[in-house]
Amino acid sequence: MTGTSTVLRVVAFVAALLAVGAAALGVGRAVGPVDGVPLASEAGAEPDHGHDADAWSDSPADGAADGAADKAADKAVDVAGLTARADGFTLELADPTLPAGPATLELTIRTSSGRPLLDYDVAHEKELHLIVVRRDLVGFQHVHPVLDRRTGTWSVEVDLTPGTWRVIADFVPEGWQQVTLAEDLAVSGRFQPAPPGQERLTDVVDGYRVTLAGDTAPGAPTELTARIERDGVGVRDLQPYLGAYGHLVALRAGDLGYLHVHPEGQVGTAGEGGGPQIRFATEFPTAGTYRLFLDFRVGNTVHTADFTVTADGAPAGSGTSDETGSPDEHQEDSHDH
Fold it and tell me: What CATH number has the domain bearing residue 95?
């Protein structure tokens, strides 16, 4: 009798262990790996010179049953600028805290060996684009630091207010693909967060009225069009800025995920102005609120307009893109000359 009782207790104990293991496996699948996207340098992968937002999303899967869930997870990962370390590169701030007001911001991009990265490819006329913005999306600054090649340190002057700021570095290491890294910067003082606000597709800056149009449904490539007017007339003397007639930065509210936005078309030849419309190709990966900042140059002065976009609903049909902007072009021909 005692032997039978002992066997029963052993069987019950093993069953309990199996149950605990199954529960832990379920939790692991629900949470997922902490660093689900491998670093290119650590995985032994060659640089993908055609890297884009979906570069990691086409890896072989165990099956097609969870395809929709996998794509949704990929879209969350695809947003750049969420970490200070990616693809074997690390963004390191010289000082994680700075005083309010004008200050010198210094940073270093390090390779997987810990050495400062010194060699960059030029993208949009610069080796490194730096976005500095407070986490409530106030105080946007698009600046271009200077590299000290003796130390590998980048430095630039910024103007900061109290709060937590996001420092986003966008660059292309020589022979590599585009990399976006971000780190938080603390600025001491009394912080008063600004609310995200309602959707706003028109901004007036320095006398210029800028209107943004386009399909903002999440999960599909889209084209956004910015139209610039002054005194009700389309501006046709836009000057090239960073290799295009405009530079658009899109940030997702909350985590400040950084969207890659590409200007469409080419700048005119010497002496020719651009405008009044600038087109950009991008994709809103998830539903949510996004803040967009447009830099454009007129009269040798750079102006910055900003917009608040709500991405929700389903992508519009193919006929929508043709309707967006086309009537304006006909109106420009009749009113702008």
Answer: 2.60.40.1080
